[in-house]
Amino acid sequence: MSLSRLRFGDSADTGQAGTMPAVRAEIVLSAELASLAAKRCGMSDETVRKWRKRGE
User: Fold this and answer.
1) What are phi and psi of 39, to 5 degrees?
2) CA 10/CA 45 separation, integer angstroms
3) d(Cα 20, Cα 7) in Å, to the nearest integer?
4) Tens-digit pLDDT profile for residues 2-43
5) What is this structure's pTM?
């Protein structure tokens, strides 16, 4: 699965881009460094760390 194609979903209610659940799951299960996963998916390192801590 290509993360670049699944990176963002529509969140019309809030006007903000959301990340698809499949992408979140792949990031959480990934063994790569948070900084690399974040850069690959166009998000912050902190977001990746939060998801991993929560187990999302």
Assistant:
1) -65, -45
2) 22
3) 6
4) 454 444 444 455 555 677 888 889 998 999 999 999 999 899
5) 0.63
